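quick one, 273 residues, struct below
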Amino acid sequence: MKNKVALISGASSGLGKEIALSLLQKGYTVYGFARRIEMMNDISEKGGYPIKMDVTSQEDIDRAVSEVLKKESSIDILINNAGYGFYGSLEESTMEQAKQLFDVNVFGLAQMSKAVLPTMRSQKSGIIINISSVVGKVAFPFLAWYSSSKYAVEGLSDALRVELKPFGIKVVLIEPGRVESEFGKVALERCKESSESPYASQINNLMTTMENMPLGSAKASSISNTVLKILNTSRPKFRYVPNFDGKFAIWGKHWLGDGIIDFVTGLKINNIK
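---
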């Protein structure tokens, strides 16, 4: 039986690399896409195929998918993992930063999906797994643009799931909480550059809260295990929340309401005793 072919964006580090290596170990044919191809040598060593690609470039995406189809007769799995975020107040964030974030997190995901859909439709099968975030369901202060981009991914995925059902294509969301990856480190480092901000005290309190949360960040393997769980069932759920902190946040918003969530969050970042 032919191995299933999986395409993974953002495979050079963090969650993307963990997912790629996990799928390779389970016998999938894996194509890892990222700008930093030199950071995917381990994927190549394990039998995968790294391809240099920028998700904001339609030309790059078309070339990369065409390269896959020259070698493979099908594309069975697309994992839209490429994305990034930054901490900062809305007031001090530039529109250029916001547009660049949406270009990667939303439009890049959409362009990747569009590129594989003709193949998936013709074979009447396939699955698209979009890596969202708990902040796509529960927005967090100083993550306004990142939260907005993930809210957009949630809406896009819900609509796409219904559009593609007649063609036998599934769309699944993974909504992680805090996960050990470059994202958190980079975002928090950028926070440290905000000492002159009128929001400096709130940002410092946010950083302290994030660094001292009792459960810490989940392992990247919790996400790759969730991907395998999705691929090993014929009827996956629409959404998966792998982390306890993510489940707790979504539960709190649903049952307690926005006012209570805002109040509790405000206690932390405004240092109210």
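The first strand starts at residue 5 and ends at 9.
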